[in-house]
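Fold it.
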Amino acid sequence: MTETHGTPAPDLKIIETRVYRGPNIWSYDPAIHLVVDLGSLENFPSNTIPGFTERLLADLPRLDQHHCSRGRKGGFIERLHEGTWLGHITEHVSLQLQQEAGHDMRRGKTRQVKGSPGVYNIIYAYADEPVGLAAGELAVRFVNNLVQPDPAFDFTTELEKFIKQAERTAFGPSTQAIVDEAVSRDIPWIRLNKASLVQLGQGVHAKRIRATMTSETGSIAVDVASDKDLTTRLLASAGLPVPRSESVRTVEDAVSIANKIGYPVVCKPLDGNHGRGVCLNLQDADAVREAFPIAAEQSRRGSVIVENFVTGKDYRCLIINGRMEAIAERVPAHVVGDGIHTVAELVDITNADPRRGVGHEKILTRITINNAARQLVRDQGYELDDVPPEDVMVKLTLTGNMSTGGISIDRTWEAHPENVEIAEEAARMIGLDIAGIDFICPDITQPVRETGGAICEVNAAPGFRMHTNPTIGEPQYIAKPVVDMLFPPGAVSRIPIVAVTGTNGKTTTSRMISHVFKGMGRKVGMTSTDGIVIDERLVIRQDASGPKSARMVLQNPRVDFAVFEVARGGILREGLGYERNDVAVVLNVQPDHLGLRGIDTLEQLADVKAVLVEAVPRTGYAVLNADDPLVRKMRRKCSGQVVWFSMAEPGSEVRDYIEGHCRRGGRAVVLERSDLGDMIVVKHGRRSMQLAWTHLLPATFGGRAMMNVQNAMAAVAAAFAAGAPLHDIRQGLRTFNTSYYLSPGRLNEIDVDGRSVIVDYCHNAPAMRMLGDFVDRLGESLSASSEVGRPSRIGVIATAGDRRDDDIRELGEVAAQHFDVVIVREDARLRGRKRGESAGLVQAGVRAAMEGGARCRRVDVVLDELEAVRFALERSNPGDLVVLCVDQHQSVLAELESVSHLAQAGARSGDEGGDPDFVQPDEEITEETPRELA
């Protein structure tokens, strides 16, 4: 036994909770993530707490079925006796609590947080999010109670409350049966509300169900089925057996019709359901008068149907897509005497059946004793306190509805073919794709036209549980024909998904891929940091690189192709917003966002981005940057095929590896260099296919913007893997440019009164290196064409406040190598820092580089973004290069357009006066005190 000191205290507590709704860094499947602190319990494994394991198993005996790491039943019990920590125990309790509620969850893991003694990550699977979260919270309270009992905590009561909560939020049996069938066919599904509205499939292929109503169910058919009087008349017009009936609105009219039809009669609501308000076997006018208000109360329109009482057994025929799929005999709620117990006691014994629940949550419903039940028992010669003789049936309701406590007997293979034909014809007459036809007849095995009987009701959205879980007989797998109807064999349920991640270049690459497929006529849904775009329309303007945005695209019925920009934050926060992606693109892994959410190293950041690669199926592709060592390692995590892209020179180690990959039948996109320029080449097996000269692609600025050359190569690889022909890929890249309309905020070039202004999103040191390389190339070109001397390069830069101090300073150091003047601003969102703090760190980085001989000769701080833009334009002259690294590109572009229009208006009015604050390009710039603006 482990040596411990002191007394264990109930210190276990949850310090953070996350819900992963898709593949994540811990699991391929949805999972709950609890970060817990054991406190003093870190020193007390299970074998050191007297009686702990015994009390645990007494309350949750089925924990003995858990395998744990031993891989066999009872493995977890062995761990308990050997001594395991209470975080691990909480994981298993969370899983078992869900099993107690009917959710068969088995996957989980517990890992200690590095460098934090007593703090653990607990990850476990869930089927229903609220239930999974409640299981974790109850597990923590339960484990603490086992450590030190709390008189106010009663586990039996808490468990019952938990199970009832699970029943309230769970799908009903009908919805669950359809969802399970869809999952078995690899059809994706999304729950659209807290009830039973579910989407099956994605985008343009999506279908919807609500319980057993589908997107194919006609609203007119539902209205007709809801009007029992109209239903009866339509069926009668088709020559189908129906009872004589009429609709009435007053008691006296009901009595009059009953006298006309002849007793016994039935009174039921015109548009009721679940058998509510149905009064059977009314023998005289007084009975009709008593029944009328009961039926009228359940009728939304206030009308009541009076019809002749058809004697016989109650059968439900389920018709799906015009065919009979199941028949169940419904037996009204009842008890059978044993000569010992009273009627009330027999009801309690019957309700103790674990298959019975409240409402539709379970396969049977508990029997409720109400005034109608008491009267019915009295009519049979008993009171609730009487003991009926052995084997005597005492009815508690007259209707056989499952919702009133009835049971079902499967009769699918016993029905006479003529009765089957009648039921199918009734569904066709009403127009329902899924219909429940209620037959009353002596025997379903005999033709009802000969034995007597009638269709008493046609139901839209019939319940499935009497067929999927009959009390007696074989279950019928009726979800199969429903899914067959929605998705016939061979039908497509998924849309292609291309997911793009990386530290830099995600948005531009996503836009390039989207543009290629738009040119092919696809209705593309794209998410990015700028918003959600559906078929070229920006429908939501916000940072949409997270999982919720992805789900919004997959719910859109116009989308037949999806391109998702996937950011690190969304993966860490709640995983991917979908189950898998057909093509995963990983551009690079650079030192950005480190020190956030427990990601402190590049290797950890690479593991986060590799979630996309792990979400590639065997039939999919991972497009990986062979030039990045961390991205290159991700090939081991890909179940599908790898497509490489690389800018490496021929003969290099990377290119040699790629050539070997292609010789084995693989795919790659490489750059072939010659005196004529750089050519993007697609390789597949031993074939090499020239795609385009980089200098002819508008987004590359004549081949100068090497980051967009790399982005274009990634887009080519992704589009090729997704099945796009080469000529469509070529045309897409030749027509994609960095104008504000196609690529807002990414290398937008604007002429502002003779100044070349570049607007970009660059916000970290690696991106600044690539932008700086572009600035150097573009600056050399401008110098060669300038007639007034060497143009100045002015950069407005900033980074997010939640980056590490060293990373922020590095941004300034890199920018100083490429700009003559650096103006430091700040984002509106400070992300935990004080105003001016992050700008001060950037400025310090610039000055450090200046002391080391960097190109920069001046640094200013202008915190407000628009003020910084105006300041940069004031400091520049015509012919200069001004690079604006912005956060709110819409506001900046509006400001630049305004300045440009004012300059044009001034030129037209003959105003040629110079601004005294302009600095001449050949004038030496000296460092001045930074200008600080609030």
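The longest strand covers residues 323-331.
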